[in-house]
Amino acid sequence: MSIFEEVHDRKQTKSMKWDMLQKRFQSEDVIPMWVADMDFKAPEAVNQALIKRAEHGIYGYTVIDEDVTSSITDWVKNRHGWDIQADWLNYSPGVINTLHMALQAFTEPGDKIMIQTPVYTPFYNIIKVLDREVVKNPLIQQDDYYTIDFEDMEKKLASGVKAFILCSPHNPVGRVWTEEELRKMAELCLQYDAMIFSDEIHADLVFKGHKHLPIASLSEEIADKTITCMAPSKTFNLAGLQASYAVTPNKQNKQKLEKAFLRQGLNNSLNGMAITAMEAAYRHGGPWLEELLEVVESHTAYIKEMFAAHAPELKVIKSEGTYLVWVDCSQLNMDKKELNRFMIDKGRVGLNPGQDYGDEGDAFMRINVACPRATIEEGVQRIIHAVEAWRASTN
């Protein structure tokens, strides 16, 4: 049996995904397919490295040495063709922490910050909590695919936007931006003097026929205006260990970012287990990742096929990466609250409601497919049965 077919009991492990069912969905009788972690064990090399570290039994202060930094720079170069330097790196518990610091370092209260909606919920939160203004550049939905509204983007940038938070690959719509799209976005930001904060946490989770390009890798000029946020957390299911890093090629910008970290008491370090896991994952996790990508792409295709055949009211948006499937439920003719309760009460699945990603997501649901095939099949069948019952009741 493949390690990706094994069903694990995650309850009573302080799992946000599995131990918050009652609080999140007001029911224990749902299959949780929401928050973006996987129901798969991390690569065995990671687990063994953590066990070995724990057996040592001493958990003193740690350093991020050349072995760790080279594991990062080697991974980014080999995986994404970007030759980064160790002295470009800053470390933080998570990408959102880094974006929070970047907004404080390079913008002021009241400044306009652009995001491409529907988009990852914390983008809204960090902008608002820091008293900046959210400026939406809504993506264009064309049937089952999303594209960028460049005319709107330029108009909004010209209004005085100070920074653009890019989601690449995009969560939740699953786009892996092309080089042409990335260059056009970057050139507009350069033209209107807007910083680019690029969340590339899903960089490694890209399907066949597509390639992730770090936007900062396109030119030195673009790199000088960009802070790139990366992490092994989504790639290798390490989110609970809290390890991420920012890549800032411009020396002055890096110093500004470091000052923002220091003002918040963050000292450019990570906990010992996070360091151990990150190095092991980047050194030895490649084969595990290749198998994972096949599994996730297969699950995504299965959902699209099953809904098309048995619940055509649910339109699966074409996904080019991530393990998050974005589903257009507008043909059910429910408002956002009704749709969410329908999936919980009738479908008995716990999904992410599209409303969490902005008004543009009100008629959508997000499904996490990084779980064993048996879980996927059960969840899909529950949703199909709920839709069939709804169809029968409306005819």
UniProtKB/TrEMBL annotation:
<comment type="similarity">
    <text>Belongs to the class-II pyridoxal-phosphate-dependent aminotransferase family. MalY/PatB cystathionine beta-lyase subfamily.</text>
</comment>
<dbReference type="InterPro" id="IPR015422">
    <property type="entry name" value="PyrdxlP-dep_Trfase_small"/>
</dbReference>
<feature type="domain" description="Aminotransferase class I/classII large">
    <location>
        <begin position="30"/>
        <end position="383"/>
    </location>
</feature>
<protein>
    <recommendedName>
        <fullName>cysteine-S-conjugate beta-lyase</fullName>
        <ecNumber>4.4.1.13</ecNumber>
    </recommendedName>
</protein>
<dbReference type="InterPro" id="IPR015421">
    <property type="entry name" value="PyrdxlP-dep_Trfase_major"/>
</dbReference>
<dbReference type="InterPro" id="IPR027619">
    <property type="entry name" value="C-S_lyase_PatB-like"/>
</dbReference>
<dbReference type="Pfam" id="PF00155">
    <property type="entry name" value="Aminotran_1_2"/>
</dbReference>
<dbReference type="InterPro" id="IPR015424">
    <property type="entry name" value="PyrdxlP-dep_Trfase"/>
</dbReference>
<dbReference type="InterPro" id="IPR051798">
    <property type="entry name" value="Class-II_PLP-Dep_Aminotrans"/>
</dbReference>
<keyword id="KW-0663">Pyridoxal phosphate</keyword>
<dbReference type="GO" id="GO:0047804">
    <property type="term" value="F:cysteine-S-conjugate beta-lyase activity"/>
</dbReference>
<keyword id="KW-0456">Lyase</keyword>
<dbReference type="InterPro" id="IPR004839">
    <property type="entry name" value="Aminotransferase_I/II_large"/>
</dbReference>
